[in-house]
Amino acid sequence: MKNKSFGLLAVGVTGLVLTLSGCGITTTNSSVATTGKGTDTGLKWSNYPNVDSSLKGQTITILWTDTGGTAQQTDEKIEKEFTQQTGIKVNNIGVDYNSVYNKVMTDVMSNSSDIDLAEMDTIWAGQYYAGKVAVDLTNVIPKSVQAQFTPSALTSVTYDGHIMAVPWYSSTKHFYWNKKLFQEAGLNPNDPPTTYDQFLQDSKIIQQKLGSKGVYASGWSWEQAESLTCDYVSFLGAYGGSFFNSAGQPEFNSSAGVQALQMMQTLYKSGTVDPASLQWNETQVQTAFAAGKIAMMSNWEGQYPLLNDPSQSQVVNQTAATILPGEGNVKSAAVTGSEGVALLQSSKHKAAALAFLEFLASKPYQLTEFQMNGQYPTVSSFYSDPDFKKADTTKTMGIMEEQYKYGVNRPNAPGYVSWSDILNGQLHSAIMGQETPKQALNTAQTKIEQAIKQAGTN
Fold first, then answer.
1. Measured between alpha carbons, how far is 314 from 307 in angstroms, rounded to an integer?
2. Which end of the chain is more exposed for a tag (fewer CB within 10 A), N or C?
3. Which domain of life is it from (predicted)?
4. How far is CA 48 from CA 44, 45, 52, 445, 451, in A?
């Protein structure tokens, strides 16, 4: 997405723009499936823009992250275009990311029906299901439509076989580097590191050659927040580790987990990482990279076109993107950040809201998001679509799609939000050197196991 900023919890997303001219995902089957884990809701997928005329005049309210600026303009655009096409009016509620989840849960507890659709980060899918927050769309979205989503996009909105939202965008973190700074440091500008060991060695060379100019080799979103957990998941995957085992028990304090955190600590202690990284989120890392103050970063897609916009960037046409490093037998690993939009159980306008979700998956919506915000599509065929290729002026769509093959999901089980708070606190402590990686992860695992046990008895 154009601007993902994990604050206290997770991903932030920006605005919505569209040009209506046909539809992306279609199916000849408009009936509701009755097989699988989902339930029969009575809702029908109508193949947008084939919307029931009786829905005209209804108003739906959507809750999602609003980062201001472009988001406000694009929200207004989507309201106007969608209403013209369907006769369904749209009311947007834009709040900071951390407030989305809290507001949804507050409305559920108060039996409010003020919100029809709500942003759903992948880590909320379990809670949206277990708490009966959102409609189970497993048997609403036809199987032929489900098959058209990218696997990473569909799994990001799925919990235990239940599809709890329509995929909104595809996302993982990626590796970006400044080719000009590489060259100035005497490194091959076309040979980015493919392992974290090489990353460390290149970082030391860059720091030695360019540090006196105020340049750091890298910057990271390592504030004590979900953004830090996200980067740890990437490192954990690179070293062959996993967050939970097949039985659902935490296992991140394994040798692979310790190695991953040890590398993060080593990088920070090496003096090659901008010290401000311990207070940065992804947006602040992006700002430093665009200013030419750091040579490498891990960040979400959507960095372009900003990085090549002279009004916002000092590194126009100097940067490139590729897959994040791996280690040993692991070629690459990157935390996923895909999100969806969920239909709330309390909605009084479910059919009208579903029409918007169908629109969310359409080519006009997805193409304009890609053109305007660098937001990557959720539909597999769009990655080879001529219109998307034409819009891919930085020629990065292929490498972004490649990274999706090595995506690593965070757990989306109920209670993850509190577990992540425990983990990122311990990660932060270890990177600062207040604890060894092993001590920090052991403490986190003990606390998380206790939290899971307590939740199971409530």
1. 8
2. C
3. Bacteria
4. 11, 8, 10, 46, 43
Pairing of strands 407-408, 334-335: parallel
pTM exceeds 0.85 for this model? no
Q: Which phi and psi (to 5°) does residue 68 adopt?
A: 80, 180
Tell me the per-residue pLDDT of 298-320, one tens digit each, with 9 for 90 and over: 999 889 878 999 999 999 999 99
Q: DSSP string of 217-246? A: EEE---SSSHHHHHHHHHHHHHTT--SB-T
Q: What is the DSSP letter of 423?
A: H
How do 117-121 and 407-408 pair as beta strands?
A: unpaired
- Kindly provide the b/e burial profile for residues 89-110, where b requires at least 16 CB atoms within 10 angstroms of the residue's own CB: ebebbbebbbbbbebbbebbee
Q: Tell me the two tokens of residue 51.
A: 């919307």
The phi-psi region of residue 292 (left if phi > 0; otherwise alpha if psi is between -120 and 50; otherwise beta) is left
CB-CB contact of 387 with 19 (8 Å): no
The tally of CA atoms less than 13 A away on the side-chain side of residue 92 is 25
Which DSSP helix (H) or strand (E) runs through 94? Answer: strand 89-95
Quick: pLDDT tens for 259-284.
Answer: 999 999 999 999 999 999 999 999 99
Residue 27, token pair as written in the block = 């199916």
